[in-house]
Amino acid sequence: RPHRRFVVVGAGQSAAETADYLHRTFPDAEICAVFSRYGYSPADDSPFANRIFDPAAVDHFYDAPEDAKQALLTYHANTNYSVVDGELIEHLYRTAYQEKVQGHERLRILNTTRLTTVENIPGGARAHIQPLTGGDPYTLDCDAVVLATGYRPTDPRELLPDLADDFLTDDQGRLRIGRDHRLMTTDRIQAGIYLQGGTTEHTHGITSTLLSTLAVRSGHIRDSLLLRRAEQDV
To answer: Which of 30, 45, 134, 193 lies 20 to 30 Å from 179, alpha-carbon distance?
Structure first.
């Protein structure tokens, strides 16, 4: 590790945990946390807000009109997206503050900045950083750049392109999905295609991406399969 520096890009839980892990694991290295907001935002884990993840909330969301669905996703995005556990935020802040007082800052919070480019250099990478509130861009030579910047779910139409024309969509071009997580198709497709994960968030709500509700969703799919089998036997 010739550069003795890591850059972690992102402001969510994964980014914060990565910054904390690298800071603890490599005591001789500088850890630079790069994100566009002013600071890490706390996750809303209050009991009332967390009811959005109850299995019964999926029924309410599925049957709601489109404007209500969008409002709920906006209201409660901070239960799941780009947020960090409050205790971890406090820990990182105390660490950065103590190091500043001691005059040896290893945990550097580079807020209101963004990563523009990464290039390979001998023994590591060069991160190009752009301040968002003024100032000149600069570079950081580091041993590794960690991108904890989220993801977009893969569209099933990309996985099954030969069948995509038979997938039914709504007026916004999004896939139509039954309450049992089965993809709605034309009659040409007889097999059931079931979806798990973020591709169902627009129909089933923010709980779609959580591993903690995976068993519940799997149970719904199992029940649907058993029902279809019983109907075929009849």
So the answer is: 45
- Is the same domain home to 217 and 175? yes
Give me the long-range contacts of 14-22 (CB less than 8 A, separation at least 24).
14/148, 15/146, 15/148, 15/149, 16/40, 16/84, 16/85, 16/88, 16/89, 16/92, 17/88, 18/146, 18/148, 19/92, 19/107, 20/88, 20/91, 20/92, 22/146
How far apart CA 8 and CA 22 sit, in angstroms, is: 9
Average pLDDT over residues 116-130: 97
Q: How confident is the model at residue 229 (pLDDT cuts 50, 70, 90)?
A: confident
Region 106-120: what's the mean pLDDT? 97
Assess whether 120 and 216 both reside in one domain.
Answer: no
Whether 31 is in a domain gets the answer: yes
Q: Write the pLDDT tens digit of every residue in 13-69.
A: 999 999 999 999 999 999 999 999 999 999 999 999 989 988 889 999 999 999 999
Strands 30-34 and 5-9: parallel
Which of 130, 147, 164 terminates a domain? The answer is 147
Report the CATH number that the domain containing residue 28 is assigned in CATH: 3.50.50.60
Which residue range is the domain that position 143 belongs to?
5-42+81-147
